[in-house]
Amino acid sequence: MSMNIYDFFHSADIAEHCRNINHQFSPLDMAAIIYLSDKPKEQQHEAYRQIIAEYPDMPIHRSLNFDARDSLHDYLRELIAYEERAIRAITEPENGAVFRASVCYYGTIGDVDGSYSTFEKAASAIREHWDWDGDKVEYAVIRKEHIDSFFRNREVTVDNKGNVFRVSYHEEGAPDLLDMHFFHLPVPFVKGDLVTFNDGKPYVLDWLPHWINDERRKYEDYIIGKRGDGSDMCATGYFMHEGELSRDNGPPYMIWQLSYYKGELKGEDRFLKYLSKYIKEKDESLDHLIAVYMKFYTEAQSEQFSKLFGGWYLPLEDEFEKPEEP
Asked: Nearest to residue 170, comparing CAs of 250, 251, 82, 293?
């Protein structure tokens, strides 16, 4: 029975696109997709075992953060054993160690008050103190902190049920991890699309590594491991911040999180609709684009001024009471 690799996708839009074009992922690509997913480790390990049992073995090419391996199957067996040991070491109670928790929401880290004697109590504290959906929590982290040895502290990333889906643990001889493996991920997006990453904000897509094709380098060089790693699987986009138009690229694997922006553009973000149309269709003159930008820039600056001064403003000079003439 073939695996439904789309169960492990982060972006429903990318999953639908790959399904529609019937893209075939290699066993190595599938392993990387599974590793990057937010599925519990038990489910990830089950999928690795299915790759070993049902898909042909293949070598793993060398990359900047991964030594070449002759057998993907052997590597996955080592990875499963390593992660199972790591999870036990981090989640089991231990004398001289406590468990602390934090959550990430809107890109901000918030600590959960208190230290706990067991992993389960720390996971329960997350559920009690945070409304996962209402607070838009992206993920939570539970750390095992050793009172007398900071260097032994380790952590795992968990979902809202306390299931581990990412491990931060190091031991001598541990296998290289798939967290920086570059793999080909077909996407439906084109330059100028309104997209969002993992923060829910709107962006106008400006660049993807898929479009690299010049004399110095080609996209295929990344796929075959000739250059680059997962840090190159990023995207660049324009966004609005306090009235300013900014352009930036995101963290590694940002492509993995890309989806179409389906929300309503409000406030200064309304300018992105005009920028998107200008880039994709060139149906607006540059003069018009600049005029629209200045309109939204002025609005944003006015809102910032109002926030700073609490709605108060300095009256115009002619509003002051004039002094009486002697």
From this structure: 82
Instruction: Report, in this order, helix, strand and coil percent for the chain, each rounded to 5.
Output: 40, 20, 40
Give the CA angle between residues 110, 115, 118 to the nearest 5°. 115
* Type of residue numbered 310: G
Residue 155, both tokens? 């952590």
- Contact predicate 184/255, CB 8 Å: no
Residue among 237, 325, 235 at smallest CA distance from 279: 237
Single-letter amino acid, residue 313: Y
In 3D, which of 69, 78, 105, 274 has the Cα closest to residue 181?
69
- pLDDT tens digits, one per residue of 97-151: 999 998 887 667 777 888 999 999 999 988 888 777 776 777 889 999 988 876 6
- Region of 275 (left: φ > 0; alpha: ψ -120 to 50; beta: rest) is alpha
> In the β-sheet with 108-116, what is the strand arrangement from edge to edge?
108-116, 97-105, 137-146, 154-158, 164-168
As a whole number of angstroms, the distance between CA 212 and CA 221 comes to 10
Specify the DSSP class assigned to residue 202.
Answer: -
**pTM (2 d.p.):** 0.82
Amino acid at 166: R
Token pair in block for residue 12: 């429903």
Give the span between the Cα atoms of 275 and 239, in whole angstroms: 10
Closest C-alpha to 115, from 137, 93, 89: 93
CB atoms within 10 A of CB 4: 10
Residue count of the chain? 326
Please check whether residue 34 is in contact with residue 47, taking contact to mean a CB–CB distance below 8 angstroms. yes
Q: For the range 302-308, what are the long-range contacts, defined as Cβ-Cβ under 8 Å and sequence gap of 24 or more?
A: 303/267, 304/242, 304/243
Please choose, from the candidates 6, 185, 174, the residue with its C-alpha nearest in 3D space to the C-alpha of residue 75.
174
Residues in Cβ contact with 314 at an 8 Å cutoff, skipping those fewer than 6 apart: none
* Helix H or strand E segment including 50: helix 41-54
